[in-house]
Amino acid sequence: MTKLISNIFEIPDIIYHGTDISSVPSIEREINLHHNPRRRPDFSTGFYTTANYKQAKDWAEFKGAFSDNSICGSVVSFQVDREKLNTLNSLFFLEVDEHWARFILANRSKKFPNEETLHNRDAKFDLVYGPLADGNKISNLIRNYEKGYYKSIEAFIEDVKCVKYPFPKDHQISFHTEIAKSCLTMRGVDIIDTANDGSRIVN
Description:
This protein has 203 residues and is of the alpha+beta class.
């Protein structure tokens, strides 16, 4: 079980990124921090990883099974330069709480937050760690909050809190700047064969 990570030096030496096999060559060439500019992830645009191999493998299976280009997913492993990361600006969320929920709202909302709102749209944080907002149809939940359907932030938290991906076992470690991604060195790729309604590591 992956333990809570409370600072840079508790991040493991090796972390993982789940994707489909067609995306691996571009990752080998260079990590693209703006791969899908229309997408609004929890911690804003960036490159998302985890220290939990199974979580990355599950995402790779999902990506591989629904990719138009391939029936294979891939788990890409990276070596982390923690000494270099320690010189950068990082943010750690250690529990599912109001600060975490408001940060996600600010990053995902179409309405740009005011200056007092904590967000990462300007990539002020090189690295962010914390829980996944894995509620059903998260984009719909964000729109419902904007329209005032939620009477409190606590009600929103209840809908987006980690159910499928319980924290801290499952989590996300996101990299948002060029200098942050330079702290990652690609070490290997596991190809996840998702054919025949199953999965297996083929290399």
